[in-house]
């Protein structure tokens, strides 16, 4: 019988975000299952890809990262996540601004609005995945890799 081994790789430039959740992680006794990497996501994903044993081994990926690089994350995740498994992107409705006219959008969030609209169109036309847009919170897009 195979053991069900769950491991999490968490990548973030900001270690404080991980440390904020560390008391809960320790309380639940799962610290040994989490490999926190303090780094840029793209360079860490490239390192994972350079280790060929990592291609197609992940069951799930959750991406909440800079909006400019979403398409690059997607390409890398398609290589790392198994066919038939899930990639989730956070904030794909961007405070609802993706459906708003420009004059209704706050100046501080306008730059990312265009990146997210472009990324949403990219995902919608990507024949390698089926997607579902879920209007929870700031929106998530669930991609099932075909």
TrEMBL record:
PROSITE patterns: SAM_OMT_I (PS51682)
Protein name from the UniProt record: caffeoyl-CoA O-methyltransferase
Gene3D superfamilies, alphabetized: Vaccinia Virus protein VP39
InterPro entries per UniProt: Cation-dep_OMT, SAM-dependent_MTases_sf, SAM_O-MeTrfase
Protein family membership: Belongs to the class I-like SAM-binding methyltransferase superfamily. Cation-dependent O-methyltransferase family.
Pathway: Aromatic compound metabolism; phenylpropanoid biosynthesis
Keywords per UniProt: Lignin biosynthesis, Methyltransferase, S-adenosyl-L-methionine, Transferase
GO terms, biological process: lignin biosynthetic process; methylation
Organism expressing this protein natively: Solanum lycopersicum
Enzyme class: transferase
EC number assigned by the record: 2.1.1.104
One Gene Ontology term of the molecular function aspect: S-adenosylmethionine-dependent methyltransferase activity
Top-level taxon of the source organism: Eukaryota
């Amino acid at each position: 019988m195979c053991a069900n081994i769950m491991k999490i790789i968490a990548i973030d430039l900001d270690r404080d975000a991980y440390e904020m959740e560390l008391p809960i992680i320790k309380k639940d006794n799962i610290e040994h299952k989490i490999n926190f990497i303090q780094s840029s996501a793209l360079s860490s994903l490239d390192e994972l890809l350079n280790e060929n044993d990592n291609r197609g081994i992940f069951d799930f990926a959750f991406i909440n990262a800079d909006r400019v690089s979403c398409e690059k994350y997607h390409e890398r995740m398609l290589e790392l996540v198994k066919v038939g498994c899930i990639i989730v992107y956070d904030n794909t409705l961007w405070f609802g601004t993706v459906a708003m006219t420009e004059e209704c959008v706050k100046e501080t969030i306008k730059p990312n609005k265009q990146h997210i609209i472009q990324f949403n169109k990219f995902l919608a036309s990507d024949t390698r995945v089926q997607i579902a847009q879920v209007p929870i919170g700031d929106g998530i897009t669930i991609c099932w890799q075909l």
